[in-house]
């Protein structure tokens, strides 16, 4: 069983930055593909960013150039650095982990993820 715990959310103003962290209890963290998703009230859960075993990264178009995902396998932690935050970024941000890979297992697809954290709230005021 893998447990994921997010931290780092908060209330900020537009243009500010936040760094989210997701700590994993799994012993095989380095073999997981890790993703960040977000969910705003009344909206579908949305892919934000993901990082593979070799640290290849993927981003939602609207966050490219503003958000950076990274991982520290020694600390079993994945990060999401969020700069130039906008009110539209307001949501609960959730960390997820998957062992699936290959054709048909796109990191943008929330259904491929095996484990999820509880989420951390990010609120951006205008």
Please describe what this structure looks like.
The chain is 0% helix and 47% strand. The protein is built from no helices and 11 strands. It has strands at residues 4-7, 10-13, 18-24, 33-39, 46-51, 57-59, 67-72, 77-82, 91-98, 115-116, 120-125. The strands form 2 sheets. Strands 2, 4, 5, 6, 9, 10 and 11 form a 7-stranded mixed β-sheet that branches. Strands 1-3-8-7 form a 4-stranded antiparallel β-sheet, with no helix packed on it. Strand 7 and strand 8 form a beta hairpin.
Please tag this protein with its features.
47% strand, mainly beta, four-stranded antiparallel β-sheet, seven-stranded mixed β-sheet
pLDDT < 50 stretches:
none
Find the count of extended strands (DSSP E, 2+ residues). Answer: 11
The helix-strand sequence is EEEEEEEEEEE
For the record, give the distance between the C-alpha atoms at the N and C termini, rounded to a whole number: 40 Å
- What is the average of the pLDDT values? 95
General shape: globular
Briefly note the structural class of the backbone.
mainly beta
Tally of helical runs: 0
Oligomer: single chain
The profile of the biggest β sheet is: 7 strands, mixed
**Residue share in helices?**
under 10%
Radius of gyration: 14 Å
Strand content: over 45%
């Amino acid at each position: 069983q893998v447990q994921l715990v997010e931290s780092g959310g908060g209330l900020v103003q537009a243009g500010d930055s936040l760094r989210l962290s997701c700590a994993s209890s799994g012993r095989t963290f380095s073999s997981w593909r890790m993703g960040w998703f977000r969910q705003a009230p009344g909206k579908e859960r949305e892919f934000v960013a993901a990082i593979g075993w070799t640290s290849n990264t993927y981003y939602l178009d609207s966050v490219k150039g503003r958000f950076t995902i990274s991982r520290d396998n020694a600390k079993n932690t994945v990060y999401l650095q969020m700069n130039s935050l906008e009110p539209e970024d307001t949501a609960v941000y959730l960390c997820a982990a998957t062992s699936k890979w290959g054709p048909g297992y796109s990191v943008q697809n929330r259904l491929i993820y095996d484990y999820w954290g509880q989420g951390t709230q990010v609120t951006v005021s205008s």
